[in-house]
Amino acid sequence: MTGLTESIESAQQLTVAWRAMVLDRDADADVRDLPGIAVRWADCRFSFYNCITLTDAGAGADLVAQRLSQAADIMRAKKHPGYLWLFEDLLDDEARTALPTAAEQAGLQYAFPGRGMASDLLPIPDPVHPDLTFVRVRTDEHLRAYADLQSSAYGFSLEEGRDGLVGSARWKSEVYAYLAMRGDVPVACAATVEAQGRLFVAFVATDPQWQRRGYGEAVTRKALHEGARATGLTRATLHATVAGAPVYPRIGFTPNSPIHFYNLKE
Predict the structure, then answer these.
(1) CA–CA separation, 157 vs 80, rounded Å?
(2) Minimal CA–CA distance to 19: which of 200, 261, 253, 222?
(3) What would the pLDDT profile of 171-193 be if each residue is shown by its tens digit?
């Protein structure tokens, strides 16, 4: 794939995967595909489920400024905060240069960076780690532990993480979600889910006190192995944070578009 094609794929994977996730969280969630803007907003306390992204390919500076203003207006109308995900490689050179000013004028502030990644790496072997056993998320207790790992890794309160995941039937059936267990203690988690002919990796997290031991990589490999075994899919995609980005090339992923996360100015 070309760079632009992979960036379009990366944005589409977000909109497809998040449509299902957000509607699972709330059947009445705001899920709309507007001209150049995809809204996936559960309006819950788990801010990753409150998401907007720009979808025009090759957008110029004027169009991007217009889209940012529209997106910010949508975000202001919501009860709970969330993020605008912006895939840099969908913008033309002029729009990239003008982006910081355009975002500020729209009332958005930069939150943190990320990176799209993809690979035709599947299937992969069933992983083994000397410290870990792997448990598939099948119960509410498992799902609560998964949510709590998200909170500890990403700085949410326990209530915020649980508001996004606890109570979901889909997460206990259609999502290949795994806990990495060190004895009886869940220390890391990762999930994969089918999204438009790909296996989409989502919500990888490691408890901060257990980081840098290979636990996140091992549980991601487990979720990829089991997801591919169940679906037969061979291509996988993901969106990485800066902390997680070094892990995925070791598995076989190739980076594509930088992602910029924005929230509303306080």
Answers:
(1) 14
(2) 200
(3) 999 999 999 999 999 999 999 99
167 conformational bin, left if phi > 0, alpha if psi -120 to 50, beta if neither? left
The CA distance from 167 to 144, in Å, is 9
- Spatial separation of the C-alpha atoms in residues 106 and 82, rounded to whole Å: 15
pTM of the full predicted structure? 0.94
In one-letter notation, the amino acid at residue 182 is R
**Residue 106, both tokens:** 């729209």
**213-to-27, 95, 263 alpha-carbon distances in Å:** 39, 40, 32
Buried b (16+ CB within 10 A) or exposed e, 123-146: ebeebebeebebbbbeeeebbbbb
What is the number of alpha carbons within 13 Å of residue 67 lying toward its C-beta?
26
